[in-house]
Amino acid sequence: MKVLVNNQLIERVEAKIDIEDRGYQFGDGVYEVVRAYNGQFFTYEEHIDRLYASANKIDLVIPFEKAELRELLEGLLKANNIGTGNVYLQVTRGIQSPRNHVVPELPLEGVLTASASEVPRDTTLFEQGRKAILEEDVRWLRCDIKSLNLLGNTMAKNKAHQAGAFEAILHRGEEVTEGSATNAYIIKDGTLMTHAADNLILSGITRQVILQVARDIGVPVAETGFTLTDLATADEVFISSTTIEVTPIIEIDGKQVRDGKRGPITKKIHDAFTAEVLKQCGELAFS
Ligand code: PDD
């Protein structure tokens, strides 16, 4: 397996990370996960724009121009022979010795690392759906930044896993925010409802595509958020991300959502999403 360390494509076992990298010590960095279908990136620009926007919000300078970064990431995809899979990339603020919370005045050299893996589409996710649990959202108040700090997310995800569920749907009091690694939606009386893209959620790229295709196919969209009560009485529930597309939620905290099957509007939205993937990346292979 070949990985990227800055502008070098090297064998994974050869990659070395400095123990005083601020990403390693403080989680001081940003990341993206980009999906490829048929060896073509999907919504590449949107992901990279979000990477630079996240970096900008924490005054981190990405050490590459966008064109150069694209060349590097496409090279990574090719070197690993990825057809349908995921590219993970992160940029940390760089190495600072000795460790100091204060960022030095002269900018550090940012460190880019990236890896790629083949991950076929899993139709059982989309067709059968998955179970979720509810979990209080104890994360910080800048969830719009795709930062490396994911303890609040991983703790919630692991709680779900231990409960035999796929995802933890997070809420701040009555207000549902998002999943631990996904955005969350309900369908209520034909309207698609989701949290506004503010500081309490990550503005998912999949979410952006979903809202667009939903409007295109005539499903009304309300970015007004929804409550735990709305969730409990929803007609359909689903989650989304780069890696899981549109995945129905069929049970929450042991309670079945409606008939426990993917809802008709969720299916329509996923079909429209798939058409968008097809448009950008060509014919799709299923697992
Ligand atoms: N997670 N919200 C959170 C907290 C996320 O971590 C993610 C993505 C999303 C969905 O964003 P997008 O549609 O752009 O993937 C929402 C990625 C996949 C991850 O951390 O692996």
From TrEMBL:
Keywords: Aminotransferase, Pyridoxal phosphate, Transferase
Cofactor (UniProt): pyridoxal 5'-phosphate
Source organism of the structure: Listeria booriae
Self-association and partners: Homodimer.
One GO term describing the cellular component: cytosol
Database matches in CDD domains: D-AAT_like
Enzyme class: transferase
Family (UniProt): Belongs to the class-IV pyridoxal-phosphate-dependent aminotransferase family.
Cited InterPro entries: Aminotrans_IV, Aminotrans_IV_CS, Aminotransferase-like, BCAT-like_C, BCAT-like_N, Class-IV_PLP-Dep_Aminotrnsfr, D_amino_transT
Summary of the function given for this chain in its UniProt record: Acts on the D-isomers of alanine, leucine, aspartate, glutamate, aminobutyrate, norvaline and asparagine. The enzyme transfers an amino group from a substrate D-amino acid to the pyridoxal phosphate cofactor to form pyridoxamine and an alpha-keto acid in the first half-reaction.
Gene3D superfamilies (UniProt xref): 3.30.470.10, D-amino Acid Aminotransferase, subunit A, domain 2
Gene Ontology BP terms: amino acid biosynthetic process; carboxylic acid biosynthetic process; D-amino acid metabolic process
Gene name of the record: dat
GO molecular function term, any single one: D-alanine-2-oxoglutarate aminotransferase activity
Name this polypeptide is given: D-alanine aminotransferase
